[in-house]
Amino acid sequence: MAAGLRSPPRLLGLGLGLTLLSACSLQQPLTQANQSQVSVGHQAPDWVGTDLDGHRIALKDFRGQPLFLNFWASWCGPCRAEQPGLNRIARDYQGRGLKVVGVDIRDSQDQARIYRDEFKMPYPSIFDQAARLGYAYQVDAPPSSIFIDVKGVIVFKITGELSEADYRRALDDKLFRASHPRVSP
């Protein structure tokens, strides 16, 4: 009888051990993220990872260009609501040099690809299942967005859903006005 009482705890321990062991083998495409947390007005933390198709992508690839990082997840309702507007913004601001990179956090790679394909996202997304990049940029939850200027400095950060019009105002005011001042007639 005593042996029977010990079996469930042993099975539970074995199951927990196997779960932890299998978690160690999960793919972690974000290979490097500077974990120093920064805020607006500071240099953006460096990172290197892979996009949803396995291609290498790094912050240094975007130096000298305005960058819009958008943190999202396939299970995030507000992310789904703002995605069509983000697609239009990426296309409309491309001529002004804006680069957009999505950061899929706390998600499965399969679901992230389905989301990307469903919305026909015109820009790459990094898969960051462990949200290490989110931690480095002090992002608590999706949707969140970070604007990085041509010098690599964070100029804007928002957590929560924004309308397309609000994103456009923020881009014009925070990212493009700072790097391309308007000339008065």
Fourth-level CATH superfamily: Glutaredoxin
Basic shape:
globular
CATH topology: Glutaredoxin
Please identify, by name, the CATH architecture: 3-Layer(aba) Sandwich
Beta-strand residue fraction: 15-25%
Commentary on this structure:
This protein is an alpha/beta fold and 185 residues long. It has one domain (31-179): Glutaredoxin. 39% of the residues lie in helices and 20% in strands. It contains 5 helices and 8 strands, in the order αββββαβαβαββα. It has helices spanning 2-24, 77-93, 109-119, 132-136, 164-179, and strands at residues 32-33, 47-50, 56-58, 67-72, 99-105, 125-128, 144-148, 154-159. The protein has a 5-stranded mixed sheet with strand order 6-5-4-7-8. Strands 1-2-3 form a 3-stranded antiparallel sheet. α2 (77-93) links the parallel β4 and β5 (99-105). The longest helix has 23 residues, at 2-24. It starts with a helix and ends in a 6-residue tail after the last helix. The model is unreliable at 11-36 and 180-185 (pLDDT under 50).
